[in-house]
UniProtKB/TrEMBL annotation:
Pfam families: Acetyltransf_CG. Keywords: Plasmid. One of its GO terms (molecular function) is transferase activity. This is Acetyltransferase. The lineage of its organism: Bacteria, Pseudomonadati, Pseudomonadota, Alphaproteobacteria, Rhodospirillales. Residues 6-90 form the N-acetyltransferase domain. The keyword Cell inner membrane does not apply. It comes from Azospirillum lipoferum (strain 4B).
Length: 90
């Protein structure tokens, strides 16, 4: 069963559990900016939309906290551009 996106602050990453697999986005906080350095989906979840659902949760979390996002990861940058999340770009 898929769960909500969670902020694992101990590991500095957002996570989305899908079955027994986890999609995650590594980040660091720089003041009011989330710097997303890497998004990873296990091979079995690639192409399923899991990483996109993770990114939706990251955007929701950033909005809720009043944060901007600096996507260093090419996937995160492309996802934000394709999904018109320009208001969150740092």
């Amino acid at each position: 069963m898929e769960q909500a996106v969670t902020d694992n602050r101990t590991m500095n990453r957002f996570e989305l559990a899908v079955g027994n697999r986890t999609v995650y986005a590594d980040y660091r906080r720089n003041g009011r900016t989330l710097v997303i350095s890497y998004v990873e989906a296990p091979p079995s979840l690639r192409g399923t939309g899991a990483a996109g659902r993770l990114m939706e949760g990251v955007m929701e979390a950033a909005r809720a906290e009043g944060l901007k996002i600096l996507p260093l990861c090419s996937y995160a940058a492309l996802w934000m551009r394709r999904n018109r999340q320009d208001d969150l770009l740092a």
